[in-house]
Specification:
heterodimer, A: about 290 residues, mainly beta, Immunoglobulin-like, ten-stranded mixed sheet, 3 helices, 18 strands, B: about 280 residues, alpha/beta, Metallo-beta-lactamase, Chain A, 7 helices, 12 strands
Chain lengths: ~290, ~280
């Protein structure tokens, strides 16, 4: 509907109808206890076994998501680390879980001390009213979660329709840019934009009775001066035309690089010079 | 039904989202009568509404319905189609209409049942049997209709109908009067199409939503102004490095009193415009 093909999830008027009904129902449906949904408990025990997850992890990690999403296929979220990465204390991984999505485990983001901040902003698909959770794992093995309740609908199963052919043909263009001033030794924000349908494979074409195959970005590897900055292992829970904002720590020069891999085993690269060189962005070449 | 002119009739939909109170009849729909047969332009939000439209046609003329034209795929314009299948008309739409309908069918029907319950009984999608890509003329008997498809704007399957005899252009949702325009296609494409619509200079335009009797030039200008401001403000936000959420929270707040259904759709329009424009150079 994303746009754009991407995006359109549900018919606008249908969505509006639903929104209107939901506005009326919001008072009737008090949010449930976030600690009880079965899908979360299953995921928690499968992924973390008996390890405790501190549900009040606000000193470590904070998840921001709109209480009421404008568009279920494009829900902007921010997972913000509450302290800077240091060699002795850092967040090594963040897990993202969206309870009511058909595939609730949206993916994970791995970080290093050199990441600056273990912070990631992106856009996700949200299928229905749901808890959304970011679980941070610090280098000492502890787990902390931050939870939000999001009202959205139809992000996953209501397909993009604006211009599907154009979306697929354009897949693979990548833009990597630096935001703000480069100050050596100080964490700097970067943005990675990827042209990609990031299809869920859950939309059935009533004419052919076929499901459009899932086709999405599954891995993003970011490095700076050949050291890892961020690795994202993700799926179609990320919206069409995936967009990631993250941090790194520039030194005098060097290159920030991103490699994107998708489910058709295509790879797309982007790189941007840091520091004394002009930070002109370079577009990707796709490699099969 | 309102008589727009000789042999041209329209129903003014409720300027609201689909509710049980309005039965989902929220779009402007209508029909045109020639000497040979009748063309229907959009059929409403449910089978029931389509049946009511057909009954209204029968009160005016016994001539057969030869064309059921859908201006685009949104549910409030197409779910009355099944009321006409026994008439064996051509179901006419853009060449991209069928696929758009098919890919949204499951979610449309799910929401229709959820929102309208038994009022939606029997509502199904009836896809086009005759498609238009570019322009085409249909003859109702001494009454030529000129159909035209458009660059992706409100949707990727917009189609207009120009009734030569009356000089009336039925715009579908390319024109919203008083109700907030909803972008489910491309905001830039829509601005291009608005310029082209203006250049057609018809005597009158019949909008997809809103009052049927307003002069079209100010209405089209108001719609253009909303969309152009959105583009301008989103481009500025992108230049400043604002995130999508920041843009959604700050853009177009002053438009609120100018458009019905702003609270439902405006933030989504900002999201859509942002996602479209962030890829501009």
């Amino acid at each position: 509907m994303n746009t754009i093909a991407r995006t359109t999830c549900v018919a606008l008027l249908a969505l509006a109808a639903m929104s209107a009904m939901q506005l009326a129902r919001a008072d009737e449906h008090a949010e449930d206890n976030p600690d009880t949904p079965a899908r979360w408990l299953d995921f928690k025990s499968g992924m973390f076994k008996d390890r405790a997850v501190d549900p009040r992890g606000d000193a470590v990690i904070k998840l921001d998501a709109p209480a009421r999403a404008a568009d279920g296929a494009v829900v902007p979220i921010a997972i913000t680390a509450q302290f800077a990465q240091t060699p002795t204390r850092y967040i090594k991984k963040i897990y993202l879980f969206i309870d009511e999505n058909p595939e609730p485990y949206a993916g994970s983001f791995s970080f290093a001390p050199e990441s600056g901040f273990a912070t990631i902003e992106t856009r996700v698909r949200v299928e229905d009213y749901t808890f959304m959770r970011a679980i941070a794992e610090t280098n000492d093995g502890r787990l902390y979660s931050s939870v939000r309740f999001v009202k959205a609908s139809g992000g996953c199963s209501a397909p993009a329709g604006k211009d599907d052919a154009a979306a697929e043909a354009g897949a693979g263009l990548v833009r990597l840019t630096l935001q703000g001033q480069t100050v050596p030794g100080k964490p700097q924000l970067a943005q990675l934009m990827i042209r990609h349908p990031n299809r869920t494979g859950m939309a059935m074409n009533q004419v052919t009775r076929n499901y459009a195959t899932a086709y999405f970005v599954r891995k993003v590897t970011v490095s700076y001066a050949d050291k890892p900055v961020m690795v994202a292992d993700v799926n179609f829970s990320i919206s069409e035309n995936p967009n990631f904002r993250f941090w790194f720590v520039p030194s005098g020069n060097g290159e920030l690089k991103a490699r994107v891999e998708d489910t058709k085993s295509k790879e797309f690269d982007a790189a941007v010079g840091v520091g004394s060189q002009a930070s002109a962005q370079q577009s990707a070449a796709s490699k099969l | 039904m309102i008589r727009l002119g000789a042999g041209a009739y329209a129903y003014r939909g409720d300027d609201n989202v689909a509710t049980r109170a309005n039965g989902g009849a929220i779009a402007n729909i209508g029909f045109i009568v020639g000497t040979r047969c009748v063309a229907v332009i959009d059929t409403g939000g449910t089978l029931a509404e389509g049946r009511a439209l057909r009954a209204a046609i029968r009160m005016v003329t016994p001539l057969p319905v030869c064309y059921v034209i859908n201006t685009h795929m949104h549910p409030d314009h197409i779910f009355g189609n099944a009321a006409f299948t026994a008439d064996h008309p051509q179901f006419v739409g853009s060449a991209t209409l069928g696929e758009a309908e098919a890919s949204h069918a499951e979610s449309y029907l799910r929401v229709l049942k959820r929102e309208l319950g038994p009022l939606a009984q029997g509502s199904i999608i009836v896809s086009p049997t005759h498609t238009v890509s570019g322009s085409e003329a249909l003859d109702l008997g001494h009454r030529m209709l000129r159909l035209q498809t458009w660059k992706t704007a409100h949707t990727n399957n917009d189609l207009t109908v120009y009734d030569e005899a009356s000089g009336m252009l039925w715009t579908g949702d390319l024109l919203f009067v008083g109700c907030i325009p909803v972008i489910d296609g491309s905001v830039l494409g829509w601005l291009d199409d608005i310029a082209a619509l203006r250049a057609l200079n018809p005597r009158r335009m019949v909008p997809g939503h809103g009052a049927l009797d307003r002069p079209w030039r100010p209405a089209l200008a108001a719609e253009e102004q909303y969309l152009a401001s959105l583009v301008r403000d989103v481009r500025a936000a992108l230049k400043q490095g604002q995130t999508m959420q920041q843009a959604v929270d700050t853009i177009g707040l002053g438009e609120r009193n100018r458009w019905r259904l702003y609270d439902i759709y405006h933030r989504r329009n900002v999201t859509t415009a942002y996602a479209e424009l962030e890829w501009e150079q």
